[in-house]
Amino acid sequence: MHILVKAKKIKGKAETHTKILTTITAIALIILVALSSTYTRAQVAIPREDTVHVIGAQWGPPPGWNLFQPSTTWGTWGYLYMPLFTYSALKDAWLPVIAERFEFVDPYTLRVYIRPQAKWSDGKPITAYDVEFTYFVVQKVKLGPGVGCWDYVEYIKAIGDKVVETRIKDPPRNYFSFIGCALGLYPMPKHVIEPLWNQMGEKIKEWKNDDPAKQVVSGPYKLYYYDTDRVIYARVDDWWGKDIFGLPKPKYLAHIIYKDNPSANTAFEKGDADWAGTFIPSVWTLFTKGIGTWYKSKPYYVGSGPNFLYLNLNKTAFQNVAVRKAIAYAIPYTDMLEKAYFGYSPQATAVAVHHVFEVYRKYIFTDLCQMYLGSTECFFATDLDKAKKILDDAGIIDRNGDGIRELPDGTPLKDLTISVPYGWTDWMMMCEMIAENLRKIGIDVRTYFPDFSVWWNNIIEGKYDMVIGWDGGIGFDHPWGVYRWVMDPRLSAPAGNWERYNNKEVIPLIDNAASKAYDPTAYVEAIKKLQEIWLRDLPAIPLFYGAHWYAYNTKYWIGWPNNDNPWWWPAAPWDAGAWPILFGIAKAGETPTPPKWVQTIDKGGLLIPTSIIWQQIVRLVATPTPTPTPTPTPTPTPTPKPTPTPTPTPTPTPTPTPTPTPTPTPKPTPSPTPTIAPTITTTVTTVVTQTIERTVTTISTMLSTVVSTVLSTTTSTVTQTVTEWTTTIAIAIVLFIIGFAIAWTIKRK
């Protein structure tokens, strides 16, 4: 601050100096009072017993709460903004949320009916026009709920206030993607985003939606406070859904943003966090401390989609299928998963079908495994002798005695790399073990561990030899989804086909399976043909199932779902479908009661099995309706707005199916985290880089909190003092000005 004071040379210098001093002091005191007010608002009492603390869902400063952003803050999807339906992978069923039901009016047109009770947090009703306009904006900015759905749907339009109609695009008539688009959309409030669209155009994706006073949401939580180191949500006690679903048990959700997994896991172990979505080495050693996982024994976690060893098929070394099959038999699966992955997943099947879930086992065709693997077990065994024989029989031998094999054309299998991002220590160890065994069979391989961004770009650009990577996850479309992800030549990294498999033979099979998803006979037939091609060509090598990181601490909250009490699926805090967990947990010492609505409709709940979708389509296909195909309503035309500056379509950000990242890429170091313990009051200094204009409360992330053992009934309130260093520095400057003014006056006297 520079204060320039001009004073005339008049009599009574002392009087003038006094006036100057008084003026400076007054200004300084005004600033001090204003800043003190802001400082006071930064004080907050956090009721620990009412708060679920989450770790592992946010690793950097919150980017915003706008669904049209490239990246959103944890909790935006699922807790602040809810979908029409939430899918439960455990029960292969759909939970009506904003919508109450759906129906096919013909085999190609699906109508969704929005609940009459559904309202935005500002009291305005949620309508079909909110859904329609949200999808309109998504098509323009190429980001947000329903992104990419235009490849599978002809239109999504409102039929009056409460009916949304979606029609499948034919071709490709992909029912899997169509249903996901029609049922899984997250609406935004049209009365909020339409004026923004008219003003900002495609720059709406830069809107952060970070003012709690102005935020309009559909979910049971709302932003209460955030800074660079924490996010806090408060329950909406007059939430529209409370008469249908009740209210979530925690009044607050809080996520302290730690710099790495070890720091977060330490807080979790101490009871400072309740719900973890992090990689925890040797998690079973924490079971005596009130920590639990889905299973009480190996694999502890439920596996998600298969993780693969991808071989770049554009490289000469891997274009020979004998090389790929030999590598598959050389991988030390058991040692790798026990030593590097702590037994958190069994070996994946050779056909990439998830065998842990019984519902998918019918798609493992043992006759094909017998034909191509010589066993009905459908797993690759670690057999170095067999690997060598496969290479020998294919004429891939060491021709010059240097210990490295050459292809029949003389190309040596040397100077190859196997790569994962640096810091992913479990995957790094896997790479070392695989490389060692490949050298034993005459393939020269070394490891390469670049930063994630380099590794990711190498995959996108095809500049790699071998990488360990994921697929698109599992859902109601498994195993079709994994075969499409790996084998469809129309896809390219990062959206799939990382290995560059180019076999047009699979295209009609992939499309036919999706278009006949409602017909079990036709679908199974197409899947079996795809599986035979998979075993014949082995485009990628299945390794294990990516663990779905889900752990809980029972110090403050109990009733978490687990394998002994599977009332909801083991959703990690970062999963948008985890919100029901917060409705079924209870404070330690109380009796948890899972909500009735998490049951399927035949048991009195709200969950609609996916099989009902297929049954509706089958009935309509059998008795086609002669009604003419409805003409799509044009995309809603918004109020005239300034023509926005064209924005380049962003490259999709990778969303790894729970990728094991024991040591993630370093994020900004968070400020000290409050120690939260029973009957203790602590004062914590937190660095805040912005003006605090809202009350602080600690709330937790976007998923669930559940517990299984009662440890304590102690009630505790923790007072957390959040100090704004900007404010503190400003106060220091003000005091310095006052001191300077006094000294100046004394000197003049």
TrEMBL record:
Looking at the keywords, is Lipid biosynthesis present?
A: no
Q: Can you tell me where the transmembrane regions are? A: 20-39, 725-746
UniProt xrefs under InterPro entries: SBP_5, SBP_5_dom
Q: Signal peptide location in the record?
A: none
Stretches assigned to the Solute-binding protein family domain: 96-486
**What protein does this entry describe?**
ABC transporter substrate-binding protein
Question: Region entry Disordered: which residue ranges?
Answer: 623-678
Q: Which UniProt keywords apply?
A: Membrane, Transmembrane, Transmembrane helix
Keyword Transmembrane helix: yes or no? Answer: yes
Q: Where is the composition biased (Pro residues)?
A: 625-675
